[in-house]
Specification:
single chain; 152 residues; alpha+beta; Ubiquitin-like (UB roll); 2 domains; 5-stranded mixed sheet; 3 helices; 5 strands; TMUB2 protein; membrane
Length: 152
């Protein structure tokens, strides 16, 4: 069951290279085979995770046939091989995201809307009809924005 598998190496400029490897091959072996002399500059990203352990096998990372690994060449390297993850092919992983205001905006707005809806349901007498219509409008607008940004 140790046949060859094909892995798609995807780059920022939307070019792809097909790597034919064995599941027993390591991350470091993949780098040295397809990026000789540049192993220390290359970063691999799979399912939102930076593959840092060069000794891990592809099988142990659950990399199977036709998976996509995003390739990024670190500072000082040519921009032609720079890669960022494609949101359509990677799964979100909070551990791989840097902490910034942009990443916290959507959850913060969701919590605020949830609190406002809680108060609206439990303290209905404090909300006028225009306030209720406005709350519905803001909720619908935010839903469209959130699903437009994160939906497929």
């Amino acid at each position: 069951c140790s046949g060859l598998i094909k892995i798609r190496l995807k780059f920022l400029n939307d070019t792809e290279e097909v790597a034919v490897v064995r599941p027993e091959d390591t991350v470091g072996g993949l780098k040295s085979k397809y990026f000789p002399g540049q192993e220390n500059q290359m970063k691999f990203i799979y399912r939102g995770q930076l593959l840092q352990d060069q000794g891990r096998t592809l099988r142990s990372l659950h990399i199977t046939d036709n998976c996509v690994i995003h390739c990024h060449r670190s500072c000082g390297a040519a921009a032609t091989a720079t890669v960022l993850p494609d949101p359509a092919t990677t799964t979100p992983d909070a551990g791989g995201l840097p902490l910034s205001a942009g990443n916290l905006l959507v959850p913060t707005v969701m919590v605020v809307l949830g609190v406002i809806w809680y108060f609206h349901i439990n303290y209905r007498q404090l909300f006028t009809a225009p306030a209720t219509v406005s709350l519905i409008g803001v909720t619908v607008l935010f839903s469209f924005l959130a699903f437009g940004m994160y939906g497929q």
